[in-house]
Amino acid sequence: MQSAISINNLKIAYGNQTVIEEMSIDIAPKEFLVLLGPSGCGKSTLLNAIAGLQNITAGEVWISGKNVTWEEPKDRGIGMVFQSYALYPRMSVRKNLSFGLRVAGLPKLEIEARVSRIAALLHLDTLLDRRPAELSGGQRQRVAIGRALVREVDVFLFDEPLSNLDAKLRNELRVEIKKLHQRLGNTMIYVTHDQVEALTLADRIAIMRDGVIQQLASPAEIYHRPANLFVAAFIGAPAMNFIEGRINTDGGSITFESKGLRADLGNYGFETPPAAGPATLGFRPDHLVLDGIARGLPTLSGHVSVVEPMGSEAVLWFDWFDQTLSLRLMGDVTLKPGDALAPGLDMTKASLFGAEGSRL
Amino acid sequence: MSPRSPNGPMPAHITVGRVGLYVFLLVAVLFFTLPLYIMVVTSLKTMDEIRLGQIFALPAKLDVSAWVTAWSGACMGTVCVGIRNGFWNSVAITLPSVALSVFMGAVNGYALSLWRPRGAHLLFGLLLAGGLIPYQIYLYPMVRALATVGLYNSFAGIILVHVIFGLPLVTLLFRNYFVSVPEELCKAARVDGAGFWRIFFEIMLPLAVPMVAVVSMLQFTGIWNDFLLGLVFAGRDNLPMTVQLNNIVNTTMGERTYNVNMAATILTALVPLAIYFLSGRWFVRGIAAGAVKG
Predict the structure, then answer these.
(1) Are B38 and B55 within 8 A, CB to CB?
(2) Domain's final residue, options A180, A210, A233
(3) Which residues of B touch A (CB under 8 A)?
(4) What domain range is A275 assigned to?
(5) Residue in A53, A87, A88 closest to B190 by CB
(6) Which candidate, A31, A42, A97, A224, has a CA 20 to 30 Å from the CA of A106?
(7) Interface test with B, best of A55, A74, A96, A157 (most B CBs within 10 A)
(8) Do A99 and B191 touch (CB under 8 A)?
(9) Which residues of chain A are within 8 Å of residue B207 when distances are taken between CB atoms?
(10) Element (H, E) at B183
């Protein structure tokens, strides 16, 4: 199948400083791809390069089967939504929505029809004659999304569109964007530093760091099988627990050993053939169970230090040797700080990382 | 009143400092209004009354003949046609100069801040440096240059000179204004297909209306009040009002006609004064906008 967007050997550098290392991605039609990473990782730069707003050093950008590397943004068949909304301040909502169409010289009736269709879709009908300054943050962002949609293109680019909104609105608009994608079926590339947005919206997530994609996979894959320590630590809240130790292969069985822990790795899905040596064991707070001894799992015994109830679930922090580990429990918790516990660890769900940080 | 515990609005106090402040402000007001008062009353007196030497006294009866003479009969050397030609010359010089310099400065500022062409920093630095050098230095080379291209002693020449000397300041003000405009606004417009001029006219210029108002006023008063450039470049037939005022005041046959001189001076100052009075609100708003954002 033909890709909606192909990025071939793209490189962006300012003088000696490389922002994007040589990178290639193929994005399928109707895919929702999220670029996720800490600030300064180059994700917005990559998006701007796809939009044609950023000069590139080397490589190609293909959109809908056309090489658009040297095309102007307007000729690339894209719509874009910005973090600061970037609405035209002196124009009404109607004028904001129709600006691109007027520039393109579309017939008046066509413009009106498209604007009213988009306004209905985004519930902007009653706001059409207002100025951006007279709108709330959520309304402004809906207008910004509408301005991208009204172009009726195949590809939409979102540059941290929800970062300027408060938590409640962010959740609402996140759901709206997801619905919109399901209804319109366009290809979308979405830049964010918020892992909840990434996990909830994406078909695939590309996690970036220092201009390099660390892992490009489905949200489930990224959550359950992070490719390296950076991805493992970046995704998940509370963060993944890490224990330093080593893998032993003597005596026929393969085990991970550390301080008071000795775990059999017989049912761990290794990426590479296991070898003895130093390793880091990572496991999510959700992958610890309180009745570990009864189930015959390797256990981490310690004492509760803090309990964080969150209504439907609770996070329990406990001391294990010189480390504090976290554990997520559903429902109400009767444990109190100081209580002893020995949670069991499900090794099939754990992750092992080698000395260089990549998944074993 | 007996001292009570703090509750409700704080009672008002009149302190010595506050009294001193008002006295100072009052003196400042007098300092600036007294000359204006003397000018106005003198212009409304007859020469007989002026000879009495009571400069603070109100005129015995209102006599506007000095104003009429100043406008249409006062003598410059041997020509006695008043200051009205100068008025129309000033209008013909100022309006195009203001329009052109504000427009070009706005385009400059927009291009330098939002498009950042190669060498933008150098260009901006040179422009500012040009603005900091006293313009008397440029007079002679400028005269030679304009004479070479045949613009010396013409309206076009003096307008060109005003536009050139106005550009550094106007560009600086617009650049500082546009620098505060989010870059994403430009990007959004580019995705929508707008080019350099479309973004300028449809998005940036409407956004900069307060700045346009302020800069226009600054340029208007600056160019209207200019004396040196008008004297050097405009040519004998196109002298602006300020130069003609000077000629009237310096032309004496017999006694000095103080009333006519005062009337001619007020007439010359009236236009910028009117602009400030009529647009004070805009002026303050623009200055404040420039200060906060610049």
Answers:
(1) yes
(2) A233
(3) 182, 184-185, 187-194, 198, 202-203, 206-207
(4) 237-353
(5) A53
(6) A31
(7) A74
(8) no
(9) 89-90
(10) helix B183-191
Residue A325 burial (CB count, 10 A): 22
A339 and A253 both lie in a single domain: yes
Asked whether residue A191 falls in the same domain as residue A281, the answer is no
- Tell me the pLDDT band of B283, cut-offs 50, 70 and 90: low
pLDDT value of position A4: 86
The CA distance from A141 to A139, in Å, is 5
Which residue ranges of chain A lie beneath pLDDT 50? none
Q: In DSSP terms, which residues pair with A14 in a beta bridge?
A: A17
Residue A127 is given by DSSP the state G
Mutant choice from B115, B177, B183, B192 vs A, greatest count of A C-beta within 10 A: B192
Q: What is the CA radius of gyration of chain A?
A: 24
Residue spans of the domains in chain B: they are 16-63, 85-243+270-293
Per the structure block, which two tokens stand in for A178?
Answer: 């997801």
In angstroms, the separation between the Cα of residue B117 and the nearest Cα of chain A is 13
Contact: B190, A73; criterion CB under 8 Å:
yes
Q: Which two tokens stand for residue A69?
A: 């590397």
Cβ separation A74–B191 shorter than 8 A? yes
What are B103-141's pLDDT values in tens digits? 999 999 999 998 888 888 899 999 888 888 888 888 999
- Look up the CATH superfamily of B85-243+270-293: MetI-like (1.10.3720.10)
Report helix, strand or coil for B87. helix
How many domains does the structure of chain A reveal?
Answer: 2
